[in-house]
Design brief:
176 residues, alpha/beta, Rossmann fold, five-stranded parallel sheet, 38% helix, globular
């Protein structure tokens, strides 16, 4: 937290299609750094998400509410504007971005540069994924679920159930 008398608000944006345990781990870590964390769910229809915005918000709100460890208040909100515009609107001083691998860095570096040009008052902080979650991506989770594989290690049970239903699977597969 600030320690300088300022109330720090951070934004952790993403599509969260679906939310993974890796995302939740970053929520936990980001909540240590700010007084209030807003997990911002991008409408992002250009990406063609599997889940609607309302479904993604619902899954994320449920998972955040059930997190055993949060170090500050955490709020889940949708947004459909430029990220820096949203950050400015909610009075955030920091945007958190997760990095899983070197391949993420190139895109994130360019995005950070553009955001800094749009609003130099908003900082970007990169949080490296822990080794446990570096290989987990929502894209991979959806692919595994669509083929009937066990995704229980990557998402919460509620998210797993929703994914299996989305793919027409009546029940969760047994663990491999």
């Amino acid at each position: 937290m600030a320690g300088n008398g300022k109330y720090l608000i951070g934004v952790y944006p993403g599509t969260f299609d679906p939310v993974t345990k890796g995302h939740l781990h970053l929520v936990k870590r980001a909540s240590r750094i700010v007084d209030h964390l807003i997990v911002a769910v991008a409408a992002n229809t250009r990406k063609g998400p599997l889940f609607s915005l309302d479904e993604r918000l619902d899954m994320l709100k449920t998972d955040v509410e059930n997190m055993p460890e949060k170090y500050s208040s955490v709020e889940v909100r949708p947004f459909d504007t430029l990220l820096v515009s949203f950050a400015r609107e909610v009075r955030a001083s920091c945007i958190f971005r997760g990095l899983r691998a070197v391949s993420d860095f190139d895109f994130e570096f360019q995005l950070t540069g553009m955001n800094a040009k749009l609003d130099p008052e908003i900082e970007t902080a990169f949080l490296m994924a822990s080794d446990k979650w570096q290989f987990v991506s929502a894209t991979f989770v959806k692919e595994i679920a669509s083929l009937g594989g066990d995704i229980g290690g990557f998402v919460t049970p509620g998210v797993a159930d929703r994914l299996y239903r989305k793919f027409g699977l009546a029940h969760r597969p047994d663990a491999v």
